[in-house]
Predict the structure.
Amino acid sequence: MTQKLGYLGVRIGLLPAILGCVAGLAACSPEASGPEPANPSASATPPTETAAGPESLETSAAAAGASGERLQQTMRYQAMGTDFEFTLYTGPGAESTAEIVRIADLAIASVRDLEEQISQWKPQSQTTYINRHAAEEPVRVSPEVFDLLQTCKTVYAETGGAFDVTVGPLVELWGFYKGEGHLPSDEELRGAVARVGLEKVTLNEGERTVAFSEKGMHLDFGGIGKGLALEVAAEVIRSYGVSSGILHGGTSSVLAIGAPPGEPGWTVRIRNPYNTNKYIDEVCLKDESLSTSASYEKWFELEGKKYCHIFDPRTGLPVEGMVSATAIVPSGTLSDALSTAFFVMGVEKTREYCREHPGVRAILVPHTGGELEPRRIGFDAP
Ligand code: ADP
Ligand code: MG
């Protein structure tokens, strides 16, 4: 049975605020974390905002003037259909805020280059070309896109197929591309699942080509692209000698470069989706990335039931029973991919993953129907 949802029955919801970052407002220690902030107003982004630099949309400087003092500058941009925000400190590599702004502008330029290559919404992108032609013949791609696909294959294998960038047919079937929820029939679901599975994508390293074994397959880098973008931006920023900064990609991924001057790390808070004055957990990041995947990010509702935008690629169904999944790991690309994977895998499988991958931490919030109970995983590892 196909049920085309009526206009009034459909609600695609967006809750943009997941991660809040606080620089220098709270001590970066595990003891400082907890389900409710000591000072709820502290979960705001940096305090003052002034007019923009040449390319950045908005900038803010937290401290001014005194010689030798390290200045903080925040730049905001639009890319990949979302907001990017880079907060960087001046230092030996970049001594003035004007230099910081130039470096940030170069970093966002490389994010936009990446977007041109991997966005499925850009008609000239490699992803668009792959999606159109890889079922007919192997498609040669850039080293960057090939590397990304290899990373996707590794995460796919290590998560038992929970993270799978071939989910495109599912995202489409359930109506998320159009922004109009659709409850599919069993037949439609079987048809889409048959076109999902990274094992049906052949990568030829010598030729640097990608081939699909089924017609109608569709790559969707929505679960990894922003994290990769932060990593690309961080590489540019670090290459100019900037040693302290925090980069936000949308509201679901952050990447910390070093720590704020004189502090052990950047305090990042995961906001409580049901009460934005509270947060569900707080972590300290230094040269690490944190991403959160959440059921409240994007969803539609039908007859009182909510369907979220993250799918179990093996069943073709939207994941149920999770509020959010957060992954913390040095690589931005991996934090983004793993947060999506952990959301699909749930608490026990994520525990297994973190046991096998020391250095990966997770915070999972299963749906209990009552108070949110975040589960920290991998935090005790040496
Ligand atoms: P956000 O977009 O908020 O950063 P995620 O990183 O979890 O959230 O990405 C969710 C997106 O990833 C979905 O909108 C969809 O495009 C894609 N996706 C959904 N399910 C999966 C999955 N199991 N594996 C990989 N990508 C997925
Ligand atoms: Mg993700």
